[in-house]
Structures are given as C-alpha cells and as structure tokens.
Write a structure and sequence with these properties.
- The structure holds two protein chains of two kinds.
- By secondary structure, chain A is of the alpha+beta class.
- Chain A contains eight helices and 22 strands.
- A six-stranded mixed β-sheet of chain B has the order 3-2-1-4-6-5, sandwiched between helices.
- In chain B, a hairpin with a 2-residue loop joins β7 and β8.
- In chain B, α1 packs across α2 and α6 packs antiparallel against α7.
- Classes of the chains: A alpha+beta, B alpha/beta.
C-alpha cells in the first residue's frame, strides 16, 4: 500500500483572470487526471452555452452562482489532486487588491506560494503584492512561475530578466526559499512534462518541484508548545482517575518523562503519558493531535499552555501585531475586540496604530491611519489577560491570532505577532 | 528520526482537532449520520478524538423512509457498539402531519424534504452545532464551504458573507438561535477516505462492495429497483454486479457496475475512475447550482 508514504502539501495560488492561473490549475488537474469526465462535460456544456471559445477551465474553480455570473473568483476555492508521492491542497485565491483578505486566508496554512508572472509583462504591482503577502504570512517556500514563455519565443533572456528583477525586489522581504521555473501553462511546457522548447533550462518542472520541495522542516520542532484544547474525563470505571489534556502540538517535541512548565500557573510537572486511541506514543510533534497526561493533579484547562521549563513562550498582555483587516467597518483605534489565540480567548483594546503598510511598495504610512477592509497595519494591543505567545516568524501557530467583533461575532481581522 | 505524518495521519489530526473544537466551543452539538462512508468515518474520528471518553454528542439520522435496509441495519449495529445516543428525524412523519408535501412523478424524491426534517430536529433538540461529513472535493458549492459554517436563525447559508478562516483558529461565536454546521473532513477526497478506511480496517456496510442487485437505467444512471421509484414502461429491470459509491436514499442514489469486493479493490477502482462519485446522484443534476440552492436553504 504505497499511499501510506504520501505527504500532504498545501499551496496557494493568486492571480487575476489574465495571467493564466486558471489555465495552470486546470492543466495540473487535467494532466494528473484529477478532472473527472462528468465535470469536464459539465463545464464544456456551460462554455458552449455561453458562446465561449474552447473549454473554460476557470469554471472548475468558480463554484458560486455569483462568481460564474461575473466570471471572477470571489472566495477562496480549495482544489485537490494527488500523485503517487504527495497529496496537494490548492487554496486558489483571487489576486486583485480588493481580495487581499482572501489571499491572506489562503496563505495562512500554505507550505508553498505559487506566484505567476506573465513573461511579456514581467514583475508588476500584483506580483509584488503577492510576494509581500507570502512574506508577511511566512510561507516557507516561494515558487515564481514565469508563464506564457511561448509568447516570448521561449527566450532565455526574457526569463533571466524577470528572475533578476524579482530577486532584487525579494531582497527587501523576509523570504527564505525562492525558486523560478519558466513555463507555458497553455502548451503544458514544464508543468508536468519537460519542455522541448527551452533546452537552456535545466531545473525541475513545476510538478517535480511540488513533489520534491523539502517541507518536513516547515513546522517548528524546537520550541515545545502544547495549547490545551479540551480536558478528557471518561467517567468510566476502568479510567477512574483519568484526566487527559487533549490538543494539537503547536511546536517542538513532547516526550514522556519531560519536565514541563504550565501556563498561566507557572507550576512544574512531568509528562506521565502521551495517549491516543491507537495506544500510547513515546513522543508527539506537530501537527499531531494527542492527549497528554501529567504526573500531578493540577489546575489546567482550555486556553492554558504546556511548554518546557527552559524554553517558554512570552506571557504578556501587551502584544504588537501586523494586522490584515477584513471588515467593512474600519479598525478603530481605542476599539475593543475579542481576540482568539490558539485555544485561548481574551478581549483587547487597540492601544495604538503605528503605521499602515502599502502592500504594493512596502511604504510605511504614519500619517494615514484609517485602516479599512484589506488594509495591513502595525498595531499595539492590550489584552484583558495574558496570552502565551511567540513571534509569528518563529511559530505560525502560537504567533497568530484573529480579531472578532463583539457585536456581530464576525471575524474582522488577522494578526501576525511581532 | 524523521518527524513527519503521512497525508492520512495529517488529515486525521486536523479532523480530530476540529471535532475537539466543537466539543469545547458549543454547548449542545450533534453529529449528522446518514449511514454513508463519510459519516461512518466521522463517527470513527470522533471516537478517536475523545478516547477513552465516550463521544460527547448524539447521532442524528434524518430518515427519508426510503433507505436501503442495509443502511438502517448498519446504523443500529454501530450505535449499539459505541453506546451512542441516536436521534431519528422522520420525513415520513412530517408528510403524515402535513408539514411536508411529497413530490410526484417519475423523478420524485424526498431529498428536498430532508431539509425540513433536519431543521426541525435541530430546533427540537436545541442543537447549536451540527457536525457533517461533507467534503470540499464533492461538489463545486461545497468547495467554498468553511470548516465552521455559520447559519442564521432560519438555518440559511449565506455563501457571500462567510467568515474568513485562518490557520487553525475557528470562530464559533453566534447569537442565540443561530447555529453552526461543522465539517471536520472538509479536506479529504473520496480516495483519501477509502485509503484511510482501508488503513484503519474500519467495518463498512455491504452496500459499498460489489453485489448482485436488480437495477434499471435512467438518464445514464443505474438505480436500484424498489417500491419507492415509479418506473417508466420503457425502463427494463435486470440483474447486475453493482456497488454504491455514495449512499443516500434509494430514489436518488445511483449504483455503479463494479467487481470490487474489498476495500483495496475499491481504492484501485476509485483511483482510475473517470466519473465523480456524485455523478450518480440525480438530486445534484436538477440544475447547475442545485447544491448551492439547497445549501442556502439549510440542506446538509
């Protein structure tokens, strides 16, 4: 059963109607045999009825009525395909500036950001915006696909110029791993099959890259963090004194016998058992869901955290974040919101808006502090109780939080802790 | 040591996390159980999530009265084995009380009436979260669904006004009278489900394996011959080796010609098949956006 060795890779794509994103996704799904005949027939019929030329593969990703009517992707669409090596989850998001919030949503769980560049136009505003978001959301790997190589006569110079341009710009960003591939999504060159038109390119094809990029280190395996999600008390005779702390490992490696510090109490205890339905395990690491038992009977519940004695999160009520705003109602300085962080919940007040970030130029605007939907800003909060945090750069799970409007209960913003 | 989970174990960990969030964030959740493989998977994952405690919520079955008898048998067996609490919402009862009106004609189905029975049962039980086994790869409207999907006091879904969902943070806040639909296996595909069920050796109803059955063809789909479907004079019943890829009620669940008698054979079949599993569902074929339309009204 070879499928037992498959890994899961999540990637995000962002782009507009014209840069060939839908064609590329369609190509990957089609060439990996992930489009079914009845799906293909359905979009073929719709394309014909609308009088479109050829089969419009974008109809595969545009699921909602209003999206189909307007011919645009409004929401994040999730697509799935797999090869014998990996299962892929694509978070397909619209690239226009008014959909920044969707790009941020798609980027929040991605291992790889796939950025499409039209070989004829080079690095444009939208390319820069995608790269900035990938850097803000700390997507571990960025893959720049220079598309429509067929329209620039497969010329190496065109590819090189864009490659250089992008690298110059990326030097200003916080990105670690950037790769480049020249492709033609329309003709299929370097997508699944190697191009015969670009023998000057010796690197991987897109699919080969996605199948092989090293993602095993994308989680933080150093700083042990275990947010308590739920307390398990069986109330059964055979598990009389069982008190298990259920949760998902957010960082580091938990081992049986480890001496741990509990937050917020500061008590010290020892892990006596790491339990699962399939039996006890010796260690637990991200992203495992397990149940931890401690040797002492201490007060510990949802929202609390287990960490190592000599490696602790910051426990603080003063938090500084980069926030991406999602709501029509602008962010209010002095405004109060609910904050959800790991399994913890608190209220907060926005103490200060430091600056608004221009996501096309990286310019920090300290004058205009009106933070509207899709804006990104650096803000300072004060919470009603301590949160147990890490910098987002260090841990995407313990370094992230969301803002909830107290009146409407809507999720109104996402914060990356500095 | 290499610290990594295979794709099935990672999906499992994600689903368990979501199930535990539901137990922690809601007062009175319920698990919608149809008897199909996805809801069987859900029950199995819930068992894992809360072990060694019992699953902390009841199962809710919306019974159209047109089920395959095998489905009911398996349901009762599973409930007994787990010591779970089962609630049945009956479409037949609603029809008898005049709350629902039965469709007539050759393509009559109680699929649409399930919505009324479901919303009724949710209201009666005062459930604030209903767990479902829907997957995003099933259908295009479901591809836009959140893990935590907000429903207003009428049970309606507003696809244009969904809450953004980032990282692993789920916002289950709501006003009184509103509820959530939660979909822990959103990121699983049909193939993932089969691979996982095989890996974990989960017991399944016989309907999923190839067996001899009397069937007839309608608009390219094979349907099981039963009293609930009115046949046209031109529709000929014959015996074939078939199996179900999805299980709904008998009037709208297509069966497929197959010789797969083990889970491994099913995996092979699913891996090379060229039709989506809901391709056999006549309820999805009513219009291009029939799933979206039904979901907006509160359909599962």
């Amino acid at each position: 059963m070879e499928y037992k060795d498959m890994e899961l890779l999540r990637f995000t794509t962002a782009g507009s109607v014209d840069d060939g994103k839908s064609t590329l996704i369609g190509r990957m799904l089609y060439d990996s045999k992930s489009i079914y005949e009845d799906q293909y027939e359905a979009i073929k019929t719709t394309s014909e009825r609308r009088g479109e030329e050829g089969v419009n593969l974008a109809l595969l990703t545009d699921g909602l009525k209003s999206e189909r009517e307007q011919g645009i992707t409004i929401d994040v669409a999730y697509r799935y395909f797999s090869t014998p090596k990996r299962k892929f989850i694509i978070a397909d998001t619209p690239g226009h500036i008014q959909y920044t919030r969707n790009m941020v949503t798609g980027a929040s769980t991605a291992n790889v950001a796939l950025i499409l560049v039209d070989a004829r136009n080079g690095v444009v505003e939208q390319t820069r915006r995608h790269a900035i978001i990938a850097s803000l959301l700390q997507i571990p790997h960025i893959l720049v696909c220079i598309n429509k190589m067929d329209l620039v006569d497969w010329k190496e110079e065109a590819y090189e110029a864009i490659h250089e341009d992008f690298e110059k710009f990326a030097a200003k960003l916080d990105v670690k791993d950037v790769s480049f591939i020249p492709i033609s999504a329309l003709k299929g060159d370097n997508v699944v099959n190697r191009s015969e038109n670009m023998d000057w390119y010796e690197g991987a094809t897109l699919l080969h890259y996605l199948e092989n990029v090293h993602i095993a280190s994308d989680y933080n395996f150093i700083d042990t963090r275990f947010p308590v999600q739920h307390v398990i008390r069986p109330y059964k005779d055979e598990f009389h004194d069982y008190r298990g702390y259920a949760g998902r490992v957010a960082g580091g490696i938990l081992k049986k016998g480890d001496k741990v510090t509990l937050f917020p109490s500061g008590f010290i205890s020892v892990i006596s058992k790491i339990d699962t339905f399939d039996g006890e395990v010796e260690e637990a690491y991200p992203p495992m869901s397990v149940t931890v038992l401690l040797s002492d009977d201490l007060d510990l519940s949802r929202g609390d955290m287990i960490a190592r004695e000599n490696n602790q999160p910051r426990s603080t009520q003063d938090v500084e974040v980069m926030v991406c705003w999602f709501n029509e109602k602008p962010l209010q300085e002095r405004g109060k919101y609910v904050v959800l962080h790991t399994t913890n919940e608190a209220r907060c007040v926005i103490k200060e808006i430091r600056y608004k970030l221009d996501i096309n130029s990286l310019h920090r605007n300290e004058e205009d502090k009106s933070i509207k939907m899709n804006d990104i800003a650096r803000v300072v909060l004060r919470t009603t109780k301590p949160l147990f945090i890490d910098a987002y750069r260090k841990n995407r799970i313990t370094g992230s939080l969301i803002f909830v409007d107290e009146g409407t209960n809507e999720t109104v913003g996402a914060g990356m802790i500095i | 040591m290499n610290y990594y989970l295979n794709h099935l174990k990672e999906l499992e960990a994600e689903s368990i996390f979501v199930l535990r969030e539901v137990a922690a964030q809601f007062e009175n959740p319920v698990l919608m159980f149809s008897g199909g493989k996805d809801s069987i998977l859900m029950v199995y994952l819930a068992q894992k999530a809360f072990y060694p405690a019992r699953i902390p919520f009841p199962l809710l079955h919306i019974d159209t009265g047109h089920n395959f008898p095998e489905t009911i048998e398996y349901r009762d067996y599973l409930v007994e084995k787990l010591g779970a609490r089962l609630i049945v919402g009956s479409v037949q009862e609603n029809i008898d009380k005049g709350l629902s009106i039965e469709e007539k004609g050759f393509n009559a189905s109680r699929n649409g009436l399930q919505t009324t029975a479901l919303l009724d049962s949710l209201e009666k039980g005062k459930f604030d979260a209903a767990l479902g086994g829907a997957r995003r790869d099933e259908e295009k409207a479901r591809a836009k669904e959140r893990f935590f999907s907000h429903r207003d006091e009428f049970g309606q879904w507003d696809p244009k006004n969904q809450r953004p969902e980032l990282w692993n943070i789920f916002n289950g806040k709501k006003r009184f009278g509103e509820h959530f639909r939660v979909f822990p296996i959103s990121n699983w595909t049909e193939l993932d489900v089969w691979q996982y069920l095989a890996m974990e050796k989960v017991e399944l109803p016989n309907l999923y394996f190839a067996h001899k059955r009397m069937v007839f063809e309608r608009e390219g789909t094979l349907l099981a011959d039963c009293d609930y479907i009115e046949k046209r004079p031109t529709e000929v019943v014959k015996e074939m080796m078939v199996r179900c890829r999805t299980i709904g009620d008998m009037t709208c669940t297509g069966v497929w010609e197959s010789n797969a008698t083990t889970v491994e054979e099913i995996i092979e079949e699913v891996a090379v098949t060229r039709q989506t599993e809901r391709g056999g569902r006549t309820d999805d074929k009513r219009s291009e956006t029939s799933m979206e339309d039904r979901k907006k009204k509160g359909y599962f």
